[in-house]
Amino acid sequence: MDLLQSILQYIINSLQWGSFYALIAIGYTLVYGVLLLINFAHGDVFMVGAYIAFFISSLLLAEFSGFLSGWTLVAMAIPLTMILTACVGVTLERVAYRPLRRKGAHRLYVVITALMCGLILENGNLALLGASRKKFPDIVDTVVINLGGVVTITNLKLMVIITAVLTFLLLNWIVTKTKIGMAMRAVSFDKFAVPLMGIPLNTVIVFTFVLGSGFAGLAGMLFAMSYPILEPYMGALIGWKAFIAAVVGGIGDIRGAFIGGFLLAFIEIGVASVLPSSYRDLFAFSILLMILWVKPTGLFGVAKTTKI
């Protein structure tokens, strides 16, 4: 029974961490799938989303805590956080990436610009809010749910996992069943021919950044609710890990990014459960490197050919 409890608890913890990675990795893969751009500022957009959620939640608690429940406040804070974080992503696209795209800049310069944008977000946060950490307000009470007397899970962990799955299903439906999703796939196939077909290229690109950055904001709020200590550099490491998860899953493929995030989490939590936590990243990334050795395009990626 103890072994069964340990295994089930390991699965639940891995699903929670995998949900964070998956939500961030989806943003990477969306932008890459449409623009072939690695948006290295995406991890810091996640950080900005967490801070936006902090200020929105604090404001809502101050104004409405007397007559609205905690879950109602969460339901109000999530869309506001996603919208404002999406505005941050769209601003980056408009100010930093679009001028380079119009001038036909080499992809290397775009990558350098993305790294610069991430540093601006980090150090801008540091300059505006200071280096001191902030504690995310307790919007909802943590409730421990006992599942059959075998394993326990908190209401926040359950919400994180369910939200990640629903987000993936929603995004998959948008990309495969809607007109804007078809336009996104058309841009990823041939962005030069798309304007000739009457599809507004910039509109599709902006919508892609809205989706990716919005989901990063959602991940930021869920992460802040689960681990309520915020600091300006919190998005750097988790952003890099989510990027690696997207690459291992097959960057450009939504399903690959989603599964890659959970795969990385299962490896990390598994290593930390049997070895000192300092070995977690070493073994996790070594295993992911071996996967890329066997399949360089990632688990669900497809090698692209260029016609000359």
Automatic annotation (TrEMBL):
InterPro entries: ABC_transp_permease, BCAA_transport_permease. The chain crosses the membrane at residues 20-38, 45-62, 68-92, 104-121, 156-175, 196-227, 233-251, 258-276, 282-303. It is a multi-pass membrane protein. The keyword Transport applies. GO terms for biological process: D-alanine transmembrane transport; L-alanine transport; L-isoleucine import across plasma membrane. It is found in: Cell membrane. One of its GO terms (molecular function) is L-phenylalanine transmembrane transporter activity. Pfam families: BPD_transp_2. One of its GO terms (cellular component) is plasma membrane. Keywords: Amino-acid transport, Cell inner membrane, Cell membrane, Membrane, Transmembrane, Transmembrane helix, Transport. Belongs to the binding-protein-dependent transport system permease family. LivHM subfamily. This is Branched-chain amino acid ABC transporter permease. The lineage of its organism: Bacteria, Pseudomonadati, Thermodesulfobacteriota, Desulfovibrionia, Desulfovibrionales.
